[in-house]
Structure formats: C-alpha cells, structure tokens
Amino acid sequence: MYNIMIVEDDITIAKAINDYLNKWNYNVIYATDFKNITEQVIKFEPHLILLDIMLPYFNGFHWCSEIRKVSKVPVVFISSANDNMNIVMAMNMGGDDFIAKPFDLNVLNAKVGALIRRTYSFHSQINVIEHNGVVLNLSDTTLHYNNQKIDLTKNDYKILQLLMENLEKVVSREEIMQRLWESDNFIDDNTLTVNMTRLRKKLTESGLNNFITTKKGLGYMVE
C-alpha cells in the first residue's frame, strides 16, 4: 500500500481527497500542523505528496524546497494559482506535476497512479535521521537545521550518525573511535577530542549549542 500525504489547508478539500484516495487502497493522511511539514514528511514517509501553494506560515514553494533537501519523493502541486508563473515556479522548486483547482477527483487519481507507477522501484524513499528539527541526510552526508545546510566532513558525519542512531543513550569514546577508524589498532585518544571539538564548533556556529553532551568518564550523547 502506498502512502499519500496531503498538504492542503482547506479541510473540506483535504477530506474529500483523503476519502476518495482511500477507496483506491492508498494509505492517506493530511497535514494539520502547517509549521512543521518536513518533520511530518519524515515521520510518515509518503510515496507521494499533494501540496497546495497557498498555506499558513510558509507557502508550498518553501515546503517543496525543504522536502527536496531530504527526499526525492514525488510532489504534485494542487492549486487555484495556476498562472504560468506559478506553474513554472512549482516545477523549478522540485515539483513533479501541477493540477489546477478545481479538479476532477478521477483525474487526480489517474495522475497519482501514473506518477507512482513511474517512480517506484523505491529510489525515492526518505533516508534521514531527524531529532528536534535537526535532519541528518544519510544519502548525501549533510545536516540541515533552521533552513540552513551544514556540510560535514567524513568524520563529522560518522560521529553524528552514531550519536543520532543512539538518541538519549551514551556512546563511549571507544565505540566512536571504532566507527571512525574501523580498526583495532591504537589511535591516540586526543585525535577523537580534536574531531569532536571541530564538530561542536561547526554545530555551535549554526545555532546548535550543546547538541552533543559530554558524559564525563562515559562518552557522548545527543539528548
């Protein structure tokens, strides 16, 4: 069963689409919190998103751009703002199709089915770890926070991946060193300290103060 996510602030339209697509054996949800669309996308892992342009807080162009940072999931814009400029903008922001309102639900269903058939082989599944608005993209080893992209070194990425895979658990220095250098050979303990200091400086400069906590004598953790 394919997951469909509807991002539409007109609840009447959202429910009508939801009810119709459910009849075609899609697993459908519609957004209710328009401040945190990307987090909902990551949690639900949709196979396709239906996205309105005019939304509270941020418009659909913004959310499509944010979604594209973490996923290649197909995005179909649905909007009454169907002039050429908005259609071109939708495609440039990463949209895969545009359906003008008002639309026939049969046409919508046909387009959804066609796009899903073209897309899967499952190359567009989300591959990220998210915690408190911090998104680690496992596909391109980048970090996203507060609408900014944070480039990571190979060791930065390995440290964050290990800590975020073990949220609220202490990870020992030995475990981190094993992940970084994948060797039982002796590695100077100060080498890890240098790597951790550089990573923390990079996080702090991006507004992530104390994202990594030191547990003295035990190791590190992300809480």
Automatic annotation (TrEMBL):
Annotated ranges, domain Response regulatory: 3-116
DNA-binding region: 126-223
Pfam families: Response_reg (PF00072), Trans_reg_C (PF00486)
Protein name: DNA-binding response OmpR family regulator
Residues bearing the modification 4-aspartylphosphate: D52
Gene3D superfamilies the UniProt entry points to: 3.40.50.2300, Winged helix-like DNA-binding domain superfamily/Winged helix DNA-binding domain (1.10.10.10)
Record keywords: DNA-binding, Phosphoprotein, Transcription, Transcription regulation
Organism for this UniProt entry: Sedimentibacter acidaminivorans
DNA-binding is among the record's keywords: yes
InterPro entries for the chain: CheY-like_superfamily, OmpR/PhoB-type_DNA-bd, Sig_transdc_resp-reg_C-effctor, Sig_transdc_resp-reg_receiver, WalR-like, WH-like_DNA-bd_sf
GO molecular function: DNA binding
Residues annotated as domain OmpR/PhoB-type: 126-223
